[in-house]
Please model this.
Amino acid sequence: MAACQKLHKYFNDFAKKAAGSVTVNPNKKWNDIEAPVRSLLESKEPVDQRIDAWKKAIAKGVFCRATEIDKTIKYDELKWAPKTLQHELQPGQGIGKMDACSYIRAAWRHRTYVLHELLPKFDLVTY
Model:
């Protein structure tokens, strides 16, 4: 719940800062969505039913005013699964150009920056 609350704050802060350059979708205060988020997170239903519950809550506007795109949101749990990589790779394309490979590289670079450049600036050293 703490992570959800922090994500809510992060996206609200971003929306406030970006308000001059984009149309901001009116959002709800954390207190207004805390109970539905908790209920969805605590659900013991099978994964497909939990996914449907999240999609329905999004489409109903539980978290914010739902757009047409919100109402048709899809979840693909296999998007990053290794078996789907063979379908993503085009003939003649090296594996380094695939989304999954780019993501892994970006995550590694970010981790390296945080551990070896950012934290040491604040006299925080990790091993």
About this structure: The mean pLDDT is 82. The chain has two domains: 2-71, 82-121.
